[in-house]
Amino acid sequence: MRGRDRSGPETDRWQRHNWWGVVLESPEPRALLHFWSSLLEAPIYHESEEGGAVDFGEGVAYLAVQRAEVYERPVWPPEEGKQQMQLHLDIEVTDLGAAVEHAVELGATPAEFQPQENVRVMLDPDGHPFCLYT
Predict the structure, then answer these.
(1) Residue 69: what are its φ and ψ, rounded to 5°?
(2) Which of 29, 6, 5 is nearest to 128 (CA)?
(3) Rounded distance, CA 99 to CA 119, Å?
(4) Cα(96)–Cα(27) distance, integer angstroms
(5) Which range of residues forms the domain containing residue 32?
(6) Which residues, 6+ apart, have CB-to-CB distance to 19 below 8 Å?
(7) For residue range 24-55, what is the model confidence (pLDDT) as tens digits?
(8) Which of 54, 46, 45, 51 lies closest to 30 in space, CA to CA?
(9) Residue 55 maps to which CATH number?
């Protein structure tokens, strides 16, 4: 992409200027930040009343949460006239049952509709869909 730093993995990650990430909106950003930090077993890098980010410890990708004063939970599967998901996260796991159990313990909910045998569509506490897959 033009205008982006082209530093590679040989450059210290904190000196790089080519970070990228996904930002989820939430009416309760701290709670959602802690959910994702616990689920992904990644420490929180930054946290405030307005949101924060988790640090994966390597690379330059991040997952962040930011406050949304106006928030409507998405529905899955999509329904006419309802807020649809804009994106979802895919997380590969080796033990689907254990991963689903862990996500539920942390506050996720399995979606009613499950389209594939080796994928579980889950909803985080704010309703953002994400997939656990083998």
Answers:
(1) -65, -35
(2) 29
(3) 11
(4) 29
(5) 1-71
(6) 60, 61, 62
(7) 999 999 999 999 999 999 999 999 999 999 99
(8) 51
(9) 3.30.720.120
Asked if residue 110 and residue 47 are part of one domain, the reply reads: no
Same domain as 126, residue 91: yes
For the entire predicted model, the pTM comes to 0.86
Nearest to 62 by CA among 89, 92, 82, 80: 89
Sheet holding 89-92, edge to edge: 89-92, 129-133, 119-123, 109-110
Q: Which of 6, 41, 131, 29 is nearest to 77 (CA)?
A: 131
Peptide bond before 77: cis, by omega within 30 degrees of 0?
Answer: yes
pLDDT, tens digit, 9 for 90 and up, residues 66-95: 999 998 888 888 888 888 777 889 999 999
